[in-house]
Amino acid sequence: MKYPVSVWLDYFYMIPVEEAIARMAKAGFTHGELSILHLAQLMEKGNPEAIGKALRQCADSHGYTIPQGHLSFKGGLVDDSALERLKPELDMFAAAGIGKAILHTNGGANLTGLERYERWVHYTRLLSEYVDGTGVTLCVENMYSNPFFSTAQQIKKFLADAGSKNLAICLDTGHLHLCYKNDRPKKQSQYEFITEAGDLLQALHIVDNNGLGDTHQMPYSARTGVDWQDVMRGLRDIDYKGLFNLEILGECRAPMPILEAKLPYIRAMCEYMLSDEFLA
To answer: In this structure, what CATH number is given to the domain that contains residue 170?
Structure first.
């Protein structure tokens, strides 16, 4: 299996995104995910199109590409404020060449479950129409705390309800593991989720945990963690073509020398997991 290996750029959340890109490239990574803290810093600079073009130029100068990015999610997806927040971010993604935009369906604690779901459908449809023709696809992420988005079947139904236009799925392996360990709302293995999602699976958050909390650790760092053989068999069997991206914020609370020392191990681990030997 050959997928670009990536660590999300908030691994270096404590420095500007331009410096984070340089450090990732120095460590041998050629791809990455723009993440929420760096996104917030960028959006403070003003014009989304200019910001996106500058980000793309910076990445290009290091031989680095950013095919995936995480949209902000504070404030939810239940009223027009979501459009005011997310449309400029999507403009920036389009200018930067970020083709997969990770979308959380959240918010609306004061609404009934059905009302929340209908709002999420409505605003996702509007956003999917907004990105039409820009090269950006919205990838709806599975959640462990949201009973509407725990299984691949539920997310596929949501995409159909929202019109299925410019929409796909992002699998967070840690979220799914929490559902599997705690039966919320029903057990679905990594392999079952991946094969049910099929070609709609276009983005990954590769994350581990012990089933007790969303700790965002690297693979093989949690006892009773994610079944990585299950994950890799599923990706092989659907011929997944996206980014093999680690969203490991649980690994980034360390001094800079330690963060940089871990990156060669992370890259070697991922390359082994993607090898034929791993599933032999």
So the answer is: 3.20.20.150
